[in-house]
Specification:
single chain; alpha/beta; 5-stranded parallel β-sheet; 8% strand
């Protein structure tokens, strides 16, 4: 059975969709067509089980439907997706996702929720492949939480405009959403980093970088990722690095939202600036 050689473990809203899209273009990398398989978080984060199956299956059904609509149907691809769509959540089922990988390819999976895994979940991943590597992308927690809250509001379907203004009602809803555990726990970067550093056996297999570099220096970041994964970086494989893969609705952050998030995450911001500022050129705003 084939299991991933590397994982993108998050965090959500920090460039993981971009990373999946870029690595999928590399001939030495196999990425399942489904980003976010939601396997280990389903097993080890019970609160996630209310949505993980539907999240995965709805996307697989759409991919199958799209392939069946083609003039020339790729039945092998349909069969592969159908196997992946079974609700037999075990390691054998999980290995199905990586079965099409070719000799000489490394396989990878990106699910941002894996950043939240407890020690036992991380140990499970390492058991499947003791040499697996892990990539963690971080984003300023104020911007990350705000982007996450906008996404949740958008999914509620209550805002019709493509880009919306922060009127009093929208601001109130976002302020309420920011108190969801599923939002603020994803920005506990110190806790996330320490959990992973203390659990994986080889610290050299853990890479941390930043959404700032996805946004401003995508080529340099992708070169770094390829070096970490021990695959050749060649510009011919990567086009339109600056292209945004997924962009949420536009909305200016209000003073009340910014104030709330800065107060909540000030310790995290200072931790990142102190721990990574000099080495990575990171200087996150604190006010």
């Amino acid at each position: 059975m084939k299991f991933p050689d590397f994982y993108g473990i998050g965090v959500q809203k920090a460039g993981t969709t971009w990373l999946h899209a870029q690595l999928s273009k590399h001939p030495s990398v196999f990425m399942p067509p489904l980003k976010e398989i939601q396997y280990f978080n389903h097993l080890y984060l019970p609160d996630h089980r209310t949505w993980t199956d539907e999240h995965r299956l709805s996307r697989i059904k759409k991919m199958i439907a799209h392939r069946l609509e083609q003039h020339k149907v790729d039945y092998a691809s349909v069969e592969y997706l159908a196997k992946c769509g079974k609700n037999e959540l075990n390691d054998i089922w999980y290995a199905n996702f990586f079965s099409p990988s070719k000799p000489g390819q490394i396989a990878g999976e990106i699910t941002p929720e894996y950043s939240l895994l407890p020690e036992v979940g991380i140990e499970h991943m390492v058991r499947l492949n003791p040499d697996a590597k892990f990539i963690l992308l971080l984003r300023h927690p104020v911007d990350r939480d705000f982007s996450h809250a906008k996404m949740i509001l958008d999914h509620r379907g209550q805002v019709e405009k493509v880009d919306f203004d922060a009127n009093d009602e929208i601001e109130k809803q976002i302020l309420d959403i920011l108190d969801f555990k599923g939002v603020y726990e994803r920005s506990d970067y110190k806790g996330i980093i320490e959990q992973w550093r203390n659990t994986i056996p080889n610290p050299d297999n853990f890479m941390i970088d930043f959404y700032d570099n996805v946004k401003h220096y995508p080529k340099a970041l992708l070169e770094k990722v390829c070096g970490f994964l021990e695959i050749e970086y060649d510009e011919v494989h990567f086009k339109n690095l600056e292209e945004v893969v997924f962009e949420g609705r536009k909305m200016k952050i209000t003073a009340a939202i910014r104030e709330k998030l800065l107060a909540r995450h000030l310790e995290t911001i200072r931790y990142i600036n102190a721990e990574f500022g000099e080495k990575y050129g990171i200087s996150w705003y604190e006010a």
